[in-house]
Amino acid sequence: MMTLNRSLFALALACAPAAAFAQQPTPPPAPAAAQPAPAATAATTAQLAVPARRVTLAEALQLGREYNPSQIVAQQNVRIANMGVTEAWGAYLPSISGSGSATRNSAQRVNQFGVAQSSALTDNSSFGISANLNLFTGFQRGANMRAANATRDLNQAALLQQDYATDLATKQAFFNALADQELVGVSQANLAQADQQLRLTTEKLRLGATTRSDSLTASVAYGTAEVQLIQSRANALTSQADLARAIGAEGLVAPVPDTALEIRLVSLDTAALRRDAEATAPSVVEAQAGVTAAQASLSATRSQYYPTLSLGASQTWAGGQLPWNAAPVTNVYDSTGAVIGTVRSAKYTGTWNLRLSLAVPIFNGFVREANIVSADANTVSARAKLRDARLALDASLTQSVTALEAAAAQIDVSRTSVASAQESLRMQQERYRLGASTIVDLLTAETALNQAEVTLVQTRYNYLIARATLEALVGHTL
């Protein structure tokens, strides 16, 4: 019996396919060994899985920041805030405006009796320039300048927060696509193993060395592995589509693997990390900028109680002009009294104006008081948000550091599990070859190995995602 088993095993190894993906195994005489149609579906899915482009992590991060709508909104808010600072500076400069007008009266007119009369054609025109300078605005300009600077800092902090949020979303899409890409390889290896086992069982059934039940069980295992491969490819397609959306690309985008990404961090100094995070964490920086902006806005609102002093000046030129041939003529004489030429009358007469204005606000229907209460309420709320942001940072740091350490430990456990499952499968294969175990034991060992390999892939990328989450939290790379 042992000699017969060894002969069958040698024959099965000779018939095993060399490639991971071969055509379906030869159906055994029993109907149970015939394979269903899902293989065609797997081939179709494989054709669809060809990505339009491939990107590295650095390229994905750059494209993500260029495309992400929230990122663009944050960038435009900074642009608007910078213009607000420029506008606040402009309040220290005089405002200048110009004006002008021109009219022409027709030569034909009607008097009060309705009689048409003719008169000379005349032109009337004027133009001028005026300027106004605020000398004192009740400290409002300085308060507005501080508020504008604080608003700019707030928007820059919000942009920093969005930078890391965008990077985290892009990294998650990138690592998920890498994980699903590797899981396709795991499913392919599992299908190849199931194919080899089915061929061996089929041949043993043909020689009468096993039962039809074993052949049926091997067929079910092969079909299950085939379905797993189809699902893995579908997951890979979905991940590639998600990555394409994250970076603003059309079609499918495949990530480029990089072993340098999986280099583990040395042991973290959590105390130093917490100290650094208090100064660099985007959430805390944004909350602190919000407090500063609210306080500056409150100061600007309180300045409405102070009087304002302004200086204005204007120059205007106005005049009427008869037609050139009808305008008054003035002779020009030389030193001897002789007429040497003529000049037309001056067309415009200039006037100037200078004014100093003082405005004292007395009562405006409690509008100032309402504005101050609103600004003060915003300040109180901003301080509460800052305190909560610091507490949330402390709690999130504890959670993220723990998750990172757990993910690192899980990688080691998963690698040990894979090695253990490989050894268990090797023993079960030998026992099955010798007839000391059933095919159920062998398939159980294969399933355990497949699950261990899937878990290892997932834990490796869970570590990378946990690291990216911690970096987004503290506001710098680790």
Task: Kindly list the characteristics that best describe this protein.
single chain, 478 residues, alpha+beta, Outer membrane efflux proteins (OEP), 2 domains, four-stranded antiparallel β-sheet, two-stranded parallel ribbon, 10 helices, disordered N terminus
Could you please describe the fold and organization of this structure?
With about 475 residues, the chain is an alpha+beta fold. It folds into two domains: about 1-90 and about 150-305 and about 380-475, Outer membrane efflux proteins (OEP); about 95-135 and about 310-360, Outer membrane efflux proteins (OEP), CATH 2.20.200. The chain is built from ten helices and ten strands. It has helices at about 1-15, 40-50, 55-65, 70-90, 140-205, 210-245, 270-280, 280-300, 365-435, 440-475; strands spanning about 55, 95-105, 110, 115-120, 120-135, 255, 310-320, 330-335, 340-345, 350-360. Helix 2 (about 40-50) packs parallel to helix 6, helix 7 (about 270-280) packs antiparallel against helix 9 (about 365-435) and helix 9 (about 365-435) packs antiparallel against helix 10. The longest helix is centred in the middle third of the chain and has 67 residues, at about 140-205. Residues about 1-50 have low confidence and may be disordered.
